[in-house]
Design goal:
This protein is α/β, with parallel strands linked by helices. The protein has a single domain, classed as Alpha/Beta hydrolase fold, catalytic domain (Rossmann fold), CATH 3.40.50. The chain is built from eight helices and six strands. The protein has a six-stranded parallel beta sheet with strand order 2-1-3-4-5-6, with helices on both faces.
Amino acid sequence: MTNNSAPNPTRRLTRLARAALGVAMALTLGAGVSCMHIHRDNPAYPAAAVEVRAAMRDMRARPAGLDRPVLVLSGYRSPSGAARALAGDIRRLTGADEGEVATMSYMWADDIEPLGERVIAFVDERWPTADPERTTEVDVVAISMGGIVARWAAAEREPGARRLNIGTLYTLATPHRGARLAEAVRPDAAARQLCAGSEMLTFLDEELGDADYEIVPYAVLHDWMVGATRSSPPGEDPIWVPGRIGLAHHMVSREDRIVADVARRLRGEEPLGAPSTPPRD
């Protein structure tokens, strides 16, 4: 008599293979969707994707150099890869020497204030100066929380405190007005400092009037972590681009439109985009 309830090895392997295939297809589909851009016209950034790529090829073919060193700062608990990749783009698009562009990451840091001190020490070591009050002047390209770290390091925190000397601060999806995600998840001091209305952000907003450097903020739509409408200081609009489904915030430093515009500005050339009000987060 045949035992129909006995396990069939062939059938089991077939089920496992189908399940594995389903998981692989779901992951592939998810990754593909996450890399897709949602088209959205922005009259303040009229260059199409093909024009942006052409502008990047032109910049690579015409090295221009930099007016001052560039420091690339990473985001909240971000590994160093994104900052290094962005620094590489900046070097290639400007023709900067290797020593003119540096990166700083801080994956395990959980408090913005000591991070600001670390940034100052890093710049002093990398590009020393005899100035007793401020570091060598640098342009800063900051991913997400990196923009808040830079603003804190440049602020007059207390009498006699050494400060970061910024020429221009380019911020990519920085939560100048507080991060949307921080309203729900605040696991450490840094996350709490990124909440709208926090003591940190309130202090930095009060310092805006005394800042002697320009902030050029960029934003991506579909940014569920920060929000495009929060990615610029109060009273200012960001330069926004459409962004990607799902990973808009995580991929902000890989957006060609943003990278190309930053590079044009670092080269002292006509930018591709201008600030305008984002239509949505």
